[in-house]
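Re-run requested by the PI after the first attempt was lost when the workstation crashed. Everything re-entered from the original request form. Ligand of interest: DTB.
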Amino acid sequence: MPSLRHDWSIPEIEAIYVEPLTSLVFHAASVHREHHAPNQVQGCMLLSIKTGGCPEDCGYCPQAARYHTDVEHQPLMSVEDTLTSARAAKEQGATRFCMGAAWRDVPKDGRFDQVLDMVRGVRSLGMEACCTLGMLNGDQAAALADAGLSAYNHNLDTSPEFYGEIITTRTYQERLNTLAHVRGAGITVCSGGIIGMGESRAQRYGLLRELSNLNPHPESVPVNMLVPVEGTPLGNRPAEDPLELVRMIATARILMPKSMVRLSAGRVSLSDEAQALCFLAGANSVFLGDRLLTTPNPEADTDRALFAKLGVTLQASHV
Ligand code: SAM
Ligand code: DTB
Ligand code: SF4
Protein backbone atom coordinates (compact mmCIF):
# COMPACT_ATOMS: atom_id res chain seq x y z
CA MET A 1 0.00 0.00 0.00
CA PRO A 2 1.54 3.35 -0.94
CA SER A 3 2.48 5.46 2.06
CA LEU A 4 0.67 8.70 2.81
CA ARG A 5 2.09 11.80 1.15
CA HIS A 6 2.40 15.24 2.66
CA ASP A 7 4.04 16.99 -0.28
CA TRP A 8 1.25 17.21 -2.86
CA SER A 9 1.92 20.07 -5.27
CA ILE A 10 -0.63 22.36 -6.91
CA PRO A 11 -0.07 20.89 -10.42
CA GLU A 12 -0.55 17.37 -9.04
CA ILE A 13 -3.73 18.40 -7.21
CA GLU A 14 -5.04 20.15 -10.29
CA ALA A 15 -4.35 17.08 -12.46
CA ILE A 16 -6.51 14.99 -10.12
CA TYR A 17 -9.31 17.56 -9.71
CA VAL A 18 -9.79 18.01 -13.47
CA GLU A 19 -9.77 14.32 -14.46
CA PRO A 20 -12.86 13.40 -16.49
CA LEU A 21 -15.58 13.02 -13.86
CA THR A 22 -16.14 9.30 -14.16
CA SER A 23 -12.39 8.62 -14.12
CA LEU A 24 -11.98 10.85 -11.09
CA VAL A 25 -14.81 9.16 -9.20
CA PHE A 26 -13.47 5.70 -10.13
CA HIS A 27 -9.98 6.73 -8.97
CA ALA A 28 -11.31 8.10 -5.67
CA ALA A 29 -13.58 5.09 -5.10
CA SER A 30 -10.62 2.75 -5.65
CA VAL A 31 -8.53 4.63 -3.08
CA HIS A 32 -11.52 4.70 -0.72
CA ARG A 33 -11.96 0.92 -0.88
CA GLU A 34 -8.32 0.30 -0.01
CA HIS A 35 -8.72 2.09 3.29
CA HIS A 36 -12.39 2.10 4.31
CA ALA A 37 -15.53 -0.03 4.28
CA PRO A 38 -17.23 1.39 1.17
CA ASN A 39 -20.83 1.38 2.36
CA GLN A 40 -20.31 2.56 5.91
CA VAL A 41 -20.79 6.14 6.95
CA GLN A 42 -19.97 7.76 10.27
CA GLY A 43 -22.84 9.74 11.79
CA CYS A 44 -21.95 12.89 13.70
CA MET A 45 -24.38 15.19 15.42
CA LEU A 46 -23.84 18.90 15.91
CA LEU A 47 -25.10 21.08 18.71
CA SER A 48 -24.64 24.81 18.96
CA ILE A 49 -23.78 25.23 22.66
CA LYS A 50 -23.29 29.01 22.35
CA THR A 51 -25.03 30.78 19.53
CA GLY A 52 -24.49 34.10 17.77
CA GLY A 53 -22.85 37.33 18.84
CA CYS A 54 -19.42 36.38 17.52
CA PRO A 55 -16.95 39.28 17.11
CA GLU A 56 -15.35 37.80 13.96
CA ASP A 57 -16.29 38.85 10.43
CA CYS A 58 -16.36 35.50 8.56
CA GLY A 59 -18.35 36.46 5.45
CA TYR A 60 -20.33 33.20 5.35
CA CYS A 61 -21.35 33.07 8.97
CA PRO A 62 -24.84 33.79 10.32
CA GLN A 63 -23.40 33.96 13.85
CA ALA A 64 -21.16 36.99 13.32
CA ALA A 65 -22.56 39.81 15.47
CA ARG A 66 -21.95 42.43 12.79
CA TYR A 67 -24.32 40.91 10.23
CA HIS A 68 -28.06 41.14 10.63
CA THR A 69 -29.41 37.62 10.41
CA ASP A 70 -32.32 35.83 12.06
CA VAL A 71 -30.05 33.95 14.44
CA GLU A 72 -31.02 34.45 18.08
CA HIS A 73 -28.13 34.87 20.47
CA GLN A 74 -27.89 32.25 23.18
CA PRO A 75 -25.34 32.14 25.97
CA LEU A 76 -23.52 28.91 26.83
CA MET A 77 -25.96 26.02 27.34
CA SER A 78 -26.08 24.05 30.58
CA VAL A 79 -24.20 20.77 30.85
CA GLU A 80 -27.48 19.00 31.55
CA ASP A 81 -29.23 20.28 28.39
CA THR A 82 -26.16 19.45 26.33
CA LEU A 83 -26.11 15.87 27.59
CA THR A 84 -29.85 15.47 26.93
CA SER A 85 -29.09 16.41 23.35
CA ALA A 86 -26.12 14.02 23.22
CA ARG A 87 -28.31 11.12 24.39
CA ALA A 88 -30.82 11.91 21.61
CA ALA A 89 -27.94 12.00 19.10
CA LYS A 90 -26.85 8.54 20.23
CA GLU A 91 -30.41 7.26 19.79
CA GLN A 92 -30.35 8.48 16.19
CA GLY A 93 -27.16 6.52 15.50
CA ALA A 94 -24.51 9.22 15.92
CA THR A 95 -21.17 8.05 17.29
CA ARG A 96 -19.62 11.51 17.47
CA PHE A 97 -21.15 14.49 19.22
CA CYS A 98 -19.79 17.85 18.12
CA MET A 99 -20.27 20.96 20.24
CA GLY A 100 -19.91 24.31 18.48
CA ALA A 101 -19.56 27.74 20.03
CA ALA A 102 -19.60 31.11 18.29
CA TRP A 103 -16.45 32.34 19.97
CA ARG A 104 -13.38 33.98 18.45
CA ASP A 105 -11.34 32.02 20.97
CA VAL A 106 -11.82 29.81 23.99
CA PRO A 107 -12.79 31.94 27.03
CA LYS A 108 -10.46 32.00 30.02
CA ASP A 109 -13.21 31.75 32.65
CA GLY A 110 -15.72 29.34 34.17
CA ARG A 111 -17.33 28.78 30.79
CA PHE A 112 -14.33 26.74 29.75
CA ASP A 113 -14.73 24.51 32.83
CA GLN A 114 -18.36 24.06 31.84
CA VAL A 115 -17.28 22.91 28.35
CA LEU A 116 -14.82 20.48 29.96
CA ASP A 117 -17.73 19.01 31.96
CA MET A 118 -19.70 18.63 28.73
CA VAL A 119 -16.80 16.77 27.14
CA ARG A 120 -16.51 14.40 30.12
CA GLY A 121 -20.28 13.87 30.04
CA VAL A 122 -20.35 13.04 26.33
CA ARG A 123 -17.47 10.59 26.72
CA SER A 124 -19.25 8.88 29.59
CA LEU A 125 -22.14 8.18 27.20
CA GLY A 126 -19.72 6.16 25.08
CA MET A 127 -19.55 8.68 22.24
CA GLU A 128 -16.67 10.51 20.63
CA ALA A 129 -16.64 14.13 21.73
CA CYS A 130 -15.66 16.94 19.37
CA CYS A 131 -15.58 20.68 20.01
CA THR A 132 -15.26 23.72 17.80
CA LEU A 133 -14.70 26.75 20.01
CA GLY A 134 -12.47 29.00 17.92
CA MET A 135 -8.79 29.62 18.58
CA LEU A 136 -7.08 28.03 21.56
CA ASN A 137 -3.64 27.88 23.16
CA GLY A 138 -1.52 24.91 24.26
CA ASP A 139 -2.81 24.87 27.86
CA GLN A 140 -6.43 24.90 26.75
CA ALA A 141 -5.77 22.09 24.29
CA ALA A 142 -4.12 20.07 27.06
CA ALA A 143 -7.13 20.62 29.35
CA LEU A 144 -9.50 19.45 26.61
CA ALA A 145 -7.31 16.39 26.02
CA ASP A 146 -7.40 15.64 29.77
CA ALA A 147 -11.18 15.82 29.74
CA GLY A 148 -11.14 13.16 27.01
CA LEU A 149 -11.86 15.26 23.91
CA SER A 150 -11.61 13.02 20.83
CA ALA A 151 -11.36 15.69 18.11
CA TYR A 152 -11.22 19.44 17.64
CA ASN A 153 -12.77 21.09 14.58
CA HIS A 154 -11.05 24.17 13.20
CA ASN A 155 -11.44 24.75 9.47
CA LEU A 156 -8.88 26.38 7.21
CA ASP A 157 -11.97 27.18 5.12
CA THR A 158 -10.20 28.23 1.90
CA SER A 159 -6.79 28.92 0.37
CA PRO A 160 -4.35 31.35 2.03
CA GLU A 161 -4.73 33.66 -1.01
CA PHE A 162 -8.52 33.87 -0.84
CA TYR A 163 -8.79 33.93 2.96
CA GLY A 164 -8.55 37.72 3.28
CA GLU A 165 -11.56 38.17 0.99
CA ILE A 166 -13.73 36.23 3.42
CA ILE A 167 -12.28 36.94 6.87
CA THR A 168 -10.23 39.93 7.99
CA THR A 169 -10.35 39.64 11.78
CA ARG A 170 -7.78 36.82 12.00
CA THR A 171 -5.03 35.34 9.90
CA TYR A 172 -4.47 32.02 8.22
CA GLN A 173 -1.39 31.58 10.38
CA GLU A 174 -3.54 31.86 13.53
CA ARG A 175 -5.71 29.01 12.19
CA LEU A 176 -2.58 26.89 11.62
CA ASN A 177 -1.29 27.72 15.11
CA THR A 178 -4.50 26.46 16.72
CA LEU A 179 -4.30 23.26 14.69
CA ALA A 180 -0.72 22.79 15.93
CA HIS A 181 -1.86 23.19 19.56
CA VAL A 182 -4.60 20.61 19.02
CA ARG A 183 -2.16 18.17 17.43
CA GLY A 184 0.42 18.86 20.15
CA ALA A 185 -2.07 17.88 22.86
CA GLY A 186 -2.76 14.55 21.16
CA ILE A 187 -6.32 15.42 20.11
CA THR A 188 -7.29 14.34 16.60
CA VAL A 189 -7.67 17.15 14.09
CA CYS A 190 -10.85 17.90 12.13
CA SER A 191 -10.19 20.54 9.50
CA GLY A 192 -11.65 21.29 6.11
CA GLY A 193 -13.33 24.08 4.25
CA ILE A 194 -16.18 25.54 2.27
CA ILE A 195 -16.84 25.66 -1.46
CA GLY A 196 -19.20 28.05 -3.20
CA MET A 197 -17.91 31.32 -1.72
CA GLY A 198 -16.77 32.66 -5.10
CA GLU A 199 -13.32 31.02 -4.95
CA SER A 200 -11.69 29.80 -8.15
CA ARG A 201 -10.76 26.18 -8.73
CA ALA A 202 -7.12 27.22 -8.21
CA GLN A 203 -8.07 28.50 -4.77
CA ARG A 204 -9.67 25.14 -3.99
CA TYR A 205 -6.40 23.44 -4.92
CA GLY A 206 -4.69 25.84 -2.49
CA LEU A 207 -6.95 24.70 0.36
CA LEU A 208 -6.42 21.04 -0.55
CA ARG A 209 -2.65 21.57 -0.59
CA GLU A 210 -2.69 23.16 2.89
CA LEU A 211 -4.78 20.32 4.32
CA SER A 212 -2.88 17.50 2.64
CA ASN A 213 0.53 18.96 3.52
CA LEU A 214 -0.29 18.82 7.22
CA ASN A 215 1.63 15.96 8.77
CA PRO A 216 -0.20 13.93 9.95
CA HIS A 217 -3.23 14.64 7.77
CA PRO A 218 -6.33 15.83 9.65
CA GLU A 219 -8.15 12.67 10.75
CA SER A 220 -11.34 14.24 9.48
CA VAL A 221 -11.90 16.66 6.65
CA PRO A 222 -15.30 18.35 6.49
CA VAL A 223 -16.23 19.60 3.03
CA ASN A 224 -19.00 22.19 3.36
CA MET A 225 -21.04 23.68 0.57
CA LEU A 226 -21.85 27.27 1.41
CA VAL A 227 -25.31 27.67 2.93
CA PRO A 228 -26.06 31.25 1.87
CA VAL A 229 -27.70 33.06 4.78
CA GLU A 230 -29.57 36.32 4.27
CA GLY A 231 -27.85 39.22 6.00
CA THR A 232 -24.31 37.84 5.55
CA PRO A 233 -22.02 39.18 2.81
CA LEU A 234 -22.32 35.82 1.00
CA GLY A 235 -26.10 35.63 1.43
CA ASN A 236 -26.72 36.17 -2.28
CA ARG A 237 -24.16 33.76 -3.68
CA PRO A 238 -25.61 31.51 -6.39
CA ALA A 239 -25.76 27.81 -5.54
CA GLU A 240 -22.56 25.91 -6.30
CA ASP A 241 -22.65 23.13 -8.89
CA PRO A 242 -22.93 19.84 -6.91
CA LEU A 243 -20.45 18.24 -9.33
CA GLU A 244 -17.78 20.63 -8.03
CA LEU A 245 -18.52 19.25 -4.57
CA VAL A 246 -18.07 15.73 -5.94
CA ARG A 247 -14.69 16.75 -7.45
CA MET A 248 -13.62 18.36 -4.17
CA ILE A 249 -14.56 15.27 -2.14
CA ALA A 250 -12.93 12.90 -4.63
CA THR A 251 -9.69 14.91 -4.65
CA ALA A 252 -9.62 15.12 -0.84
CA ARG A 253 -10.13 11.33 -0.69
CA ILE A 254 -7.20 10.71 -3.07
CA LEU A 255 -4.83 13.15 -1.33
CA MET A 256 -5.74 12.02 2.21
CA PRO A 257 -6.68 8.34 1.78
CA LYS A 258 -7.04 7.43 5.45
CA SER A 259 -8.96 10.49 6.64
CA MET A 260 -12.69 10.58 7.20
CA VAL A 261 -14.07 12.91 4.52
CA ARG A 262 -17.28 14.51 5.75
CA LEU A 263 -20.07 15.60 3.43
CA SER A 264 -21.01 18.50 5.72
CA ALA A 265 -23.10 21.65 5.27
CA GLY A 266 -25.27 21.88 2.17
CA ARG A 267 -26.92 18.44 2.11
CA VAL A 268 -30.45 19.89 2.15
CA SER A 269 -29.86 21.35 -1.29
CA LEU A 270 -28.45 18.13 -2.76
CA SER A 271 -30.47 15.47 -4.57
CA ASP A 272 -30.22 11.83 -3.51
CA GLU A 273 -28.21 11.21 -6.68
CA ALA A 274 -25.70 13.95 -5.87
CA GLN A 275 -25.24 12.58 -2.34
CA ALA A 276 -24.80 9.07 -3.76
CA LEU A 277 -22.03 10.41 -6.01
CA CYS A 278 -20.38 12.07 -3.00
CA PHE A 279 -20.37 8.72 -1.14
CA LEU A 280 -19.03 6.97 -4.23
CA ALA A 281 -16.30 9.63 -4.44
CA GLY A 282 -15.18 8.80 -0.91
CA ALA A 283 -17.28 10.79 1.54
CA ASN A 284 -17.74 8.56 4.58
CA SER A 285 -19.16 10.80 7.24
CA VAL A 286 -22.17 13.10 7.55
CA PHE A 287 -23.94 15.23 10.10
CA LEU A 288 -27.23 13.70 11.24
CA GLY A 289 -30.13 15.63 12.72
CA ASP A 290 -32.39 18.31 11.29
CA ARG A 291 -30.08 21.18 12.19
CA LEU A 292 -26.39 21.94 11.71
CA LEU A 293 -25.48 24.82 14.05
CA THR A 294 -28.12 27.34 12.98
CA THR A 295 -29.20 26.16 9.50
CA PRO A 296 -31.29 23.15 8.40
CA ASN A 297 -29.98 19.66 7.70
CA PRO A 298 -32.05 16.69 6.42
CA GLU A 299 -34.69 15.26 8.77
CA ALA A 300 -33.94 11.92 10.43
CA ASP A 301 -36.62 10.18 8.35
CA THR A 302 -35.27 11.62 5.10
CA ASP A 303 -31.78 10.35 5.92
CA ARG A 304 -33.04 6.95 7.03
CA ALA A 305 -34.83 6.59 3.68
CA LEU A 306 -31.74 7.76 1.76
CA PHE A 307 -29.38 5.37 3.55
CA ALA A 308 -31.82 2.48 3.07
CA LYS A 309 -32.14 3.27 -0.63
CA LEU A 310 -28.35 3.42 -1.08
CA GLY A 311 -27.58 0.46 1.18
CA VAL A 312 -25.44 2.69 3.37
CA THR A 313 -25.13 1.70 7.01
CA LEU A 314 -24.11 3.91 9.89
CA GLN A 315 -20.81 2.98 11.49
CA ALA A 316 -21.20 1.38 14.90
CA SER A 317 -19.53 3.02 17.85
CA HIS A 318 -15.93 1.97 18.39
CA VAL A 319 -15.50 3.95 21.61
N1 SAM B 1 -16.30 29.84 15.91
C1 SAM B 1 -15.60 28.67 15.63
C2 SAM B 1 -14.72 28.76 14.41
O1 SAM B 1 -14.91 29.63 13.59
O2 SAM B 1 -13.82 27.93 14.29
C3 SAM B 1 -16.48 27.44 15.53
C4 SAM B 1 -17.81 27.49 14.84
S1 SAM B 1 -17.80 27.90 13.08
C5 SAM B 1 -19.51 28.20 12.78
C6 SAM B 1 -17.44 26.33 12.28
C7 SAM B 1 -17.37 26.27 10.79
O3 SAM B 1 -18.66 26.27 10.23
C8 SAM B 1 -16.67 27.38 10.05
O4 SAM B 1 -15.28 27.24 10.06
C9 SAM B 1 -17.21 27.20 8.63
O5 SAM B 1 -16.37 26.34 7.89
C10 SAM B 1 -18.56 26.53 8.86
N2 SAM B 1 -19.66 27.41 8.43
C11 SAM B 1 -20.15 28.47 9.09
N3 SAM B 1 -21.15 29.06 8.40
C12 SAM B 1 -21.32 28.34 7.28
C13 SAM B 1 -22.19 28.44 6.15
N4 SAM B 1 -23.08 29.43 6.06
N5 SAM B 1 -22.10 27.52 5.16
C14 SAM B 1 -21.18 26.53 5.25
N6 SAM B 1 -20.32 26.38 6.29
C15 SAM B 1 -20.38 27.27 7.28
C1 DTB C 1 -17.96 22.02 9.76
O1 DTB C 1 -17.01 21.98 8.96
N1 DTB C 1 -19.22 22.22 9.43
C2 DTB C 1 -20.06 22.29 10.60
C3 DTB C 1 -19.07 21.95 11.75
N2 DTB C 1 -17.82 21.89 11.05
C4 DTB C 1 -18.99 22.79 12.94
C5 DTB C 1 -20.75 23.60 10.74
C6 DTB C 1 -21.56 23.97 9.53
C7 DTB C 1 -22.29 25.21 9.86
C8 DTB C 1 -23.25 25.63 8.81
C9 DTB C 1 -23.95 26.90 9.15
C10 DTB C 1 -24.81 26.85 10.35
O2 DTB C 1 -25.60 25.89 10.54
O3 DTB C 1 -24.77 27.79 11.15
FE1 SF4 D 1 -17.46 33.42 14.67
FE2 SF4 D 1 -16.80 30.95 13.90
FE3 SF4 D 1 -18.85 32.27 12.74
FE4 SF4 D 1 -16.37 33.05 12.26
S1 SF4 D 1 -17.27 31.04 11.72
S2 SF4 D 1 -18.11 34.40 12.77
S3 SF4 D 1 -15.39 32.66 14.24
S4 SF4 D 1 -18.75 31.60 14.84
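Saved to the shared folder this time. Residues 44 and 271 are 20 Å apart (CA to CA).
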